[in-house]
Design a protein that fits this description.
Blueprint lengths: L2 E5 L5 E5 L6 E2 L7 E3 L5 E3 L5 E3 L2 E7 L6 E8 L6 E4 H8 L1 E6 L2 E6 L5 E6 L5 E2 L16 H7 L5 H10 L15 H7 L18 E8 L10 E7 L5 E6 L5 H16 L5 E4 L8 H9 L3 E4 L9 H21 L6 H13 L11 H6 L14 E4 L16 E6 L6 E5 L5 E4 L2 E4 L43
Helix pairs in contact: 7-8
């Protein structure tokens, strides 16, 4: 058995035993960490056993890297501290060479000497002076290792320096602000949950504008969405030009004032010029309305309006696909989608509907029909003679805002009929049976512009607004 001894920090001798399977110590004072041991005791050579207090690890200094002592078993009943040569060489990937004058620890791969310990006693002692170790001030700083390792984040760097025992001068670490990290890895800060809460309808409204990839059959290219923060009721306004947003704000403010006798206090929107312009600012200032703009290129700050657009567009897309109608009918589908969204519960208020929150009455679901389905409006009043057909096949486009009736698209002439005397075949979609759209596609002249509000209480037509 080859043994050699070292003086530990606790003042006791350390015996390096080539026959020991684990490091053993009588004290935990010199350990850098100490945890509960999975082994209950150590069995000695005479068959007796002594209890294990804990298990930990420590380091021995060297010129290139600290020498690790892993899984050191602490048993206070020990007289000597034992270090397993086998475990020592395997953990550190070194070799231990003994000669008459001491011990040399060498790197296993390069054979370079890591540490030299002279000994003149019966045992190989580590009390001698080890090979020259560079002073701490000469070691690379933590910030230098940060640059060497490709600018990892602080948690990864700290883990590497600790786990892999990379020699460094921790005293010089002063958390220098790394400009390269800011320029090369800058990320957006997380958004905290909004703490704002409106207390009555129209205290805060959210607005956004969506641009369609194609013009609608009535010539619309955009639509404006307005969401009431308190009730989550949604209004949508198809537009031909962005410049129409200002007049819509004027009409909407009058609508709220006349029908609900409530003021609009805040408007949340993005930085689009259709919102942030002299006309709007002057109008809002005159009425005491405060504008809240999201930061440039920071759409999550206008998240409620953005989510409303996404939900509406999902419904519009689905309605058009279900009915096999061309995308140019998106404005008609939007009118229907807005109506449906307001009579369905929302995630924020799962037990009620936006319609009920605003009007304090439940919507009438009996009039709801499948968008785009085959329908037959009564045409007796306009028939040529008593032998003419009493109805014509049409596609259901939704509800009329100025009438208590349905809007039906004549599949042959493209004319839109408004009637309350309509029968429906909700399982048949006439556009799915056609390879082309009607020969006389409806234009803005003979197709009433879809109104984004709900039914049955119209405003003057020149306002282009109609409330639910």
């Amino acid at each position: 058995m080859n043994n050699f001894a070292a003086q530990g920090n606790s003042g006791t001798d350390w015996i390096f035993d080539s026959g020991a399977s684990s490091h053993m110590s009588a004290s935990s004072n010199w350990l850098s960490s100490c945890t509960k041991s999975p082994f209950p005791s150590i069995i000695l050579g005479d068959g007796s056993s002594i209890p294990i207090y804990c298990v930990g690890q420590a380091q021995l200094p060297s010129s290139t890297k600290p020498l690790l002592l892993r899984d050191v078993l602490v048993a206070p009943a020990l007289i000597k501290n034992l270090i397993s040569v086998r475990q020592f060489t395997c953990d550190n990937l070194v070799s231990a060479e003994f000669d008459p004058f001491g011990l040399s620890v060498k790197d296993y791969l390069t054979k370079a000497e890591i540490a030299r310990f002279n000994s003149s006693g019966d045992l190989y002692s580590l009390n001698g002076v080890p090979a020259a170790t560079p002073p701490t001030s000469m070691l690379a700083s933590v910030d230098l290792w940060h640059r060497r390792l490709g600018h990892p984040n602080p948690a990864v760097l700290a883990s590497m320096l600790s786990e892999f025992t990379i020699p460094c001068n921790r005293d010089s670490h002063n958390s220098v602000f790394c400009e390269s990290c800011q320029l090369g890895k800058h990320v957006r800060l997380p958004f905290s949950s909004s703490s704002s809460c409106s207390t009555y309808p129209f205290e805060l409204i959210h607005c956004d504008l969506w641009t369609s990839p194609i013009a609608s059959v009535s010539g619309f290219k955009y639509y404006l969405v307005i969401l009431d923060d308190f009730t989550h009721f949604v209004w949508t306004f198809p537009l031909r030009n962005k410049s129409e947003v200002h007049s819509l704000f004027l009409n909407f403010q009058r609508y709220v004032s006349v029908h609900f006798f409530l003021p609009i206090r805040f408007i949340q929107c993005d930085n689009g010029r259709e919102f942030d312009n002299i006309k709007n600012r002057t109008f809002f200032l005159q009425h005491g309305i405060l504008l809240r703009f999201s930061c440039p290129y920071t759409s999550p700050q206008n998240g409620k309006a953005e989510r409303s657009l996404r939900t509406l567009n999902d419904i519009v897309r689905t309605l058009l696909i279900q009915s096999s109608m061309p995308p140019k009918f998106w404005a008609e589908a939007l009118h229907m989608a807005t109506f449906l969204l307001n009579i369905r519960p929302s995630k924020t208020k799962p037990n009620t509907t936006p319609y009920y929150s605003l009007f304090l009455s439940h919507p009438d679901y009996s009039a709801v029909r499948v968008f785009g389905c085959l329908c037959f409006p009564n045409a007796y009043a306009t028939s040529a003679n008593k032998l003419s057909p009493r109805s014509i096949p049409c596609a259901f486009l939704g509800f009329s805002d100025e009438h208590k009736g349905y809007r039906c698209l004549d599949l042959h002439t493209g004319h839109v009929h408004v009637s309350r005397h309509v029968t429906f075949a909700e399982h048949i979609f006439p556009f799915s049976q056609r390879t082309t759209t009607p020969s006389n596609t409806p234009s803005s002249a003979n197709t009433p512009s879809p109104r984004p509000f709900q039914l049955y209480t119209p405003l003057p037509a020149e306002h282009n607004l109609s409330p639910p």
